[in-house]
Design a protein that fits this description.
With 118 residues, the chain is an all-beta fold. It is 0% helix and 54% strand.
């Protein structure tokens, strides 16, 4: 019922920046959380950041605190992930996710590749 579309991935040098976007369609969001996970080849999928869509409160993994910022635009049904000071270990496919507060990862996007060259 909810479709998520990510964009903004690409190739960047270490120390550079990228901004990812995720737009939601198919349902009016209220009392939903939206966020980002990432998965590198041969590794487990890991949590990156999450935001309460209506209230705007945020949560980050320790590995990205101080470097990444998640935000949203209510009228556009869109969340963003601003990634600064990127490191090679940030290289992964980044997946947008969304869902009600009780199940915040109920829906997933198809992912966007982020590659950080050293």
């Amino acid at each position: 019922q909810v479709q998520l579309a990510e964009s903004g991935g690409g190739l960047v040098q270490a120390g550079g920046s990228l901004r990812l976007s995720c737009s939601a369609s198919g349902r009016t969001f209220s009392a939903y959380a939206m966020g980002w996970f990432r998965q590198a080849p041969g590794k487990e999928r890991e949590f990156v950041a999450r935001i309460r869509f209506a209230g705007g409160s945020t949560y980050y993994s320790d590995s990205v605190k101080g470097r990444f910022t998640i935000s949203r635009e209510l009228r556009k049904n869109t969340v963003y992930l601003q990634m600064n000071n990127l490191k090679p270990e940030d290289t992964a496919v980044y997946y947008c996710n969304a869902g009600p507060y009780a199940d915040p990862s109920a829906y997933w996007g198809q992912g966007t590749q982020v590659t950080v060259a050293s």
